[in-house]
């Protein structure tokens, strides 16, 4: 998915640079068109696959019906493809590029109304915090009870879990307009949220660990669960999985343990961030003992970087270019 997004960058960037730069009207058309396309894709995916039957159907008594056990291909293929199909992720990549060019054309931070963008960013921040609190207060998914922020098809015990997973993904994607506006407003640097995000401890100490937190959070959570439950592993390891990709199920711990788990995840991620360069350097030196690298002439870093940028965008940059000239 990531490489798919990167692959579209040169052509997309060149188009926006040549055809839409400084054209606010055209950029807004592109931006709203992409957001509407995203809404259509999410609506279509949900309505097409939410009621399809997956593997492991149950009768009224909750018993599996073996004769109906082999017709889940369509739902599995549809839901998995929707989640992993690269072009459906590219749309958010292009939305970000359109928003960046719109910001360059509009320059909201240089206007007298810049403070209003800070207010807007703070309002959206509070809205997202409020929505997160509402989601948490729903409690653990009961299946037999009402989840007022989940549609009924995504809250059924007899479901194959694909509809549950589909909603978890669609629910995030439908907020693309809000998150796009939030990032645009934050880019002005105005407001309390932007001030908080500039905090040195957050930006320089915690932020470099973000990707490792993404990589290791489930693993560390499972280790924590095993260590605090007499070695009993969470059901993801012990039993047959409800699904075979990206479990949406939370680690079943008490609410106050959330802070312990988050702290452990950040600490472990920090450790990996620190150790990785050391291990990588050690392995490179070990490799050098057995494999002699060919000597090569030193290249000017600036020249090499300019060649890479030219190859990706078709634009030949100069090292003394200002941000306005880029």
Walk me through the structure.
- By secondary structure, this protein is mainly alpha-helical.
- Helices cover 64% and strands 0% of the residues.
- It has 14 helices and no strands.
- Helix 3 (24-49) runs antiparallel to helix 5 (86-106) and helix 4 (73-84) runs parallel beside helix 7 (162-173).
- The chain is globular, with a radius of gyration of 24 Å.
Briefly note the structural class of the backbone: mainly alpha
Low-confidence stretches: none
Count the E strands: 0
Characterize the main sheet.
Answer: none
Q: How many distinct helices?
A: 14
Overall pLDDT metric: 81
- As a percent range, the share of helical residues equals 55-70%
* Spatial gap, N to C terminus: 27 Å
List the helices and strands and how they pair.
Layout: H1 2-7, H2 9-20, H3 24-49, H4 73-84, H5 86-106, H6 114-137, H7 162-173, H8 176-186, H9 191-197, H10 200-206, H11 210-228, H12 235-238, H13 257-290, H14 301-313
Essential attributes:
326 residues, mainly alpha, 14 helices, globular
Task: Describe the structure concisely.
Helices cover 64% and strands 0% of the residues. It contains 14 helices and no strands.
């Amino acid at each position: 998915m990531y490489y798919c997004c990167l692959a579209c960058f040169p052509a997309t960037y060149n188009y926006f640079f040549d055809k839409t730069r400084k054209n606010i009207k055209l950029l807004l058309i592109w931006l709203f068109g992409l957001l509407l396309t995203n809404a259509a894709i999410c609506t279509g995916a949900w309505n097409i696959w939410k009621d399809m039957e997956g593997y492991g159907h149950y009768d009224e008594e909750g018993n599996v019906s073996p004769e109906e056990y082999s017709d889940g291909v369509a739902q599995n293929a549809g839901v998995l493809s929707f989640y992993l199909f690269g072009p459906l992720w590219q749309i958010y990549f292009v939305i970000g590029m359109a928003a960046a060019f719109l910001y360059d054309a509009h320059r909201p931070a240089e206007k007298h109304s810049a403070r209003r963008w800070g207010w807007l960013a703070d309002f959206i921040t509070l809205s997202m915090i409020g929505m997160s609190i509402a989601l948490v207060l729903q409690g653990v998914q009961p299946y037999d009870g009402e989840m007022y922020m989940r549609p009924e098809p995504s809250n059924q015990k007899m479901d194959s879990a694909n509809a549950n997973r589909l909603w978890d993904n669609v629910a995030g994607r439908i907020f693309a307009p809000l998150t796009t506006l939030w990032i645009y407003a934050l880019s002005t640097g105005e407001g309390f949220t932007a001030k908080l995000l500039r905090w040195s401890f957050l930006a320089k100490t915690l932020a470099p660990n973000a990707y490792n937190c993404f990589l290791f959070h489930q693993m560390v959570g499972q280790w924590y669960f095993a260590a605090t439950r007499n070695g009993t592993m969470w059901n993801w390891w012990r039993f047959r999985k409800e699904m075979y990709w990206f479990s949406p199920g939370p680690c079943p711990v008490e609410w106050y343990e959330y802070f312990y788990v988050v702290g452990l995840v950040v600490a472990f991620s920090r450790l990996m961030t620190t150790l990785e360069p050391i291990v990588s350097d050690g392995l490179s030196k070990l490799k050098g003992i057995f494999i002699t690298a060919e000597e090569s002439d030193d290249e000017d870093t600036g020249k090499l970087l300019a060649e890479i940028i030219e190859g990706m965008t078709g634009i030949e940059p100069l090292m003394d270019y200002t941000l306005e000239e880029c």
